[in-house]
Amino acid sequence: MMKLRIYIDTSVIGGCLDKEFQNASRQLIDKFKQGEMIAVISELTTLELKDAPQEVLDILREIPEKNIEYVELTEEAVNLARKYLGEGVIGGGKLVDAEHIAIATINRVDVLASWNFRHIVNLQRIRGYNSVNLKYGHPLLEIRSPLEVIAYEE
User: Distance between CA atoms of 117 and 136, rounded to whole angstroms?
Assistant: First the structure.
């Protein structure tokens, strides 16, 4: 069985240190560490973490390089992100959130995981992102919180 490729944004990494999001975030990071899933990390996430506290940076360093796929913000992703803004899915001040969605879409990840309920993991916005994706010939993107991504044992 193919390993799921999970795009994570900074909220998942930072969530490891947040009491409310800690358990699910840690479990997801552990899945990456154990090689059960592949962490897809964009250059946007890397840039956002540039000035993060050392303990946040250390979380990412726990994941073996072989279990991480790094992806770039391409011109195609920038153009798709602008379409999300142009179609009114998300406000102009949230370009970076739109770019996360676009990068995940262009790279055909299995799931984008985030704790950003306002601009990303939000039913109305997910429908908007996916309607734009379909309109411009891109695949649907599965967007979930880490709680929905970690597997629960029976």
Answer: 25
Q: Which residue has the higher pLDDT, 115 or 91?
A: 115
- Which helix (DSSP H) or strand (DSSP E) does residue 6 occupy? strand 4-8
**Hey, how many other C-beta atoms are within 10 angstroms of the C-beta on 63?**
21
Q: Architecture of 4-149 per CATH? A: 3-Layer(aba) Sandwich (3.40)
Locus of tokens 């770019």? 99
**70: part of which helix (H) or strand (E)?**
strand 68-71
The closest alpha carbon to 45, from 121, 101, 118, 117, belongs to 101
Domain ranges for the chain, please list them.
4-149
Parallel, antiparallel or unpaired: strands 111-113 and 68-71: unpaired
On the 0-12 / 13-18 / 19+ scale of CB atoms within 10 A, 5 is middle
Its sign, for the CA torsion 9, 31, 40, 119, is: negative
Which pTM value belongs to this model?
0.94
The overall average pLDDT reported for the chain is 94
Decide if 90 contacts 61 (C-beta within 8 A). Answer: no
* Mean pLDDT on 68-83: 97
**pLDDT tens digits, residue range 28-47?**
999 999 999 999 999 999 99
